[in-house]
Specification:
Elements lengths: L8 H11 L2 H8 L6 H11 L2 E2 L14 E3 L2 E3 L3 E3 L12 H12 L3 E3 L7 H5 L8 E5 L5 H12 L4 E7 L9 H5 L12 H4 L1 H4 L16 H6 L8 H11 L4 E6 L2 H9 L4 E6 L13 H11 L3 H4 L1 E5 L5 H9 L4 E4 L1 H33 L12 E2 L1 H4 L2
Parallel strand pairs: 4-11, 5-6, 6-7, 7-8, 8-9, 9-10, 10-11
Antiparallel strand pairs: 1-12, 2-3
Helix pairs in contact: 1-16, 4-16, 12-13, 15-16
This protein binds ligand FNR.
Subcellular location: Mitochondrion intermembrane space
Keywords: Flavoprotein, FMN, Heme, Iron, Metal-binding, Mitochondrion, Oxidoreductase
GO molecular function: L-lactate dehydrogenase (cytochrome) activity; metal ion binding
Length: about 375
């Protein structure tokens, strides 16, 4: 398939679905229980109306912004998503190449299929990466990973994921567990000698033979993280800014904001619907924060992800107060559709749609976007 003939993110997913293995598809596509949160994530954007202004000069259009003071060309970043090499040998390195081409930020999953050093190899001046951490039961393993991040200048922050202390029940992933190799899937960073050196793997129980990809990646992830214990521990082991991912209520957004400036950003996310099914889409959490604790927006940057498939989705999130939006599956399916060029096509489509949306709304720069550009009454009642 010619990548140029693919016109939108749904078509990218269709093409990738035909090209990647059944097991990879099940892992990427799957979500918790009945996939309700995954469905809501995208549907919620369709209920928000845009309010275009006319008679506005829209020759110029600038999508650039910054995350934690690092300049980027797009308010769209690639969310941390595990095992990109299941889709294509270019893997997370390929995503990095595409992000470089479009000036987009990339968050690297702790469960990436390539090592962080491999992924940032070839990164250009000014390219921005974050490292997503799943704290391990054996803290020494996570401490070794954090030490390694301190040595990679391209990694600008640590993104601690908190919405999945245990994996959600993902039935598609479970169903495909016996397809192909059923060896436990391991994160590349965990395979690496510099991490294993400190581990007590020999004593730790090994995972059962047959598990879905998700279950097997979660093996060893700590479920005992708390505000009181984990943030001070993290501060001891990294001087990088902290981003908390997986905030789903205004209460937790507020608590996170009390930890500024150590916590510099929060990501409103339900993990692409892969953790607790029927947890709210980020848009609902944005509305809650606006209503109950709008000061959060002054203390931390607020990023969102889940269900972003159109430039209009990006713009609506920004109007509601998000600094930027992450794409998870879109990038993985882009990789599946055409390796690094497929991811580049995803970013090209989203950038062009975002620009068209800005022009038709009558806005030149993303910092001009606000609540006056949308009508969210249909979801404010929900
Ligand atoms: C994820 N996500 C995720 N999040 C995280 O913090 N660490 C991880 O390792 C992963 N792994 C992962 C794998 C796959 C296959 C998917 C689809 C997602 C969640 C991800 O960062 C993001 O929150 C969602 O993907 C956003 O939703 P969309 O864009 O996929 O709808």
């Amino acid at each position: 398939v010619e990548l140029d003939s693919i016109l939108n993110i749904d078509e990218i997913e269709e093409v990738a679905t035909k090209q990647i293995s059944r097991k990879a598809w099940a892992y990427y596509y799957s979500a918790g229980d009945d996939l309700m949160s995954k469905k809501f994530n995208n549907e919620v954007y369709r209920k928000i109306l845009l309010r275009p202004r006319i008679f506005v000069d829209c020759v110029n259009c600038d999508t650039s912004t910054s995350f934690l003071s690092h300049k980027v060309k797009l308010p769209i970043y690639v969310s941390p998503a595990a095992m990109a090499r299941l889709a294509h040998p270019d893997g997370e390195w390929g995503i990095a190449q595409a992000c470089e081409q479009y000036g987009a930020m990339q968050l690297i999953s702790q469960n990436a299929s390539m090592t962080p050093e491999q992924i940032v190899a070839g990164a250009k001046e000014g390219q921005v990466f974050g490292w997503q951490l799943y704290v391990q039961t054996e803290r020494a393993k996570s401490e070794a990973i954090l030490a390694r991040m301190n040595k990679l200048p391209q990694i600008k922050f640590i993104c601690l994921t908190l919405d999945a202390p245990v994996p959600g029940k993902r039935e598609d992933d479970e169903r495909s567990k016996n397809i192909g190799s059923n060896l436990p899937v391991r994160a590349a960073v965990q395979e690496d000698a510099s991490v294993n050196k400190t581990s007590t793997d020999a004593k730790a129980p090994s995972p059962p033979k047959s598990m879905g990809v998700g279950q097997s990646l979660f093996w060893g992830t700590a479920a005992d993280l708390t505000w009181q214990r984990t943030l001070p521990w993290l501060a001891q082991h990294t001087s990088l800014p902290i981003v908390l991912k997986g905030i789903q209520t205004h209460e937790d957004a507020y608590l996170a904001s009390l930890h500024a400036p150590q916590v510099k950003a929060i990501i409103l996310s339900n993990h692409g619907g892969r953790a607790l099914d029927t947890a709210p889409p980020a848009v609902h959490t944005l509305l809650e924060i606006r209503k109950y604790c709008p000061e959060v927006f002054d203390c931390v940057e607020v990023w969102v992800d889940g269900g972003i498939k159109r430039g209009t989705d990006v713009i609506k999130a920004l109007c509601l107060g998000a600094r930027g939006v992450g794409v998870g599956r879109a990038a993985l399916f882009g990789l599946g559709a055409g390796g690094k060029e497929g991811v580049a096509r995803v970013l090209e489509i989203l950038k062009a749609e975002t620009e068209t949306c800005m022009r038709l709304l009558g806005v030149e720069r993303v910092d001009q976007l606000g609540m006056h550009h949308i009508n969210a009454r249909a979801i404010e009642r929900d």
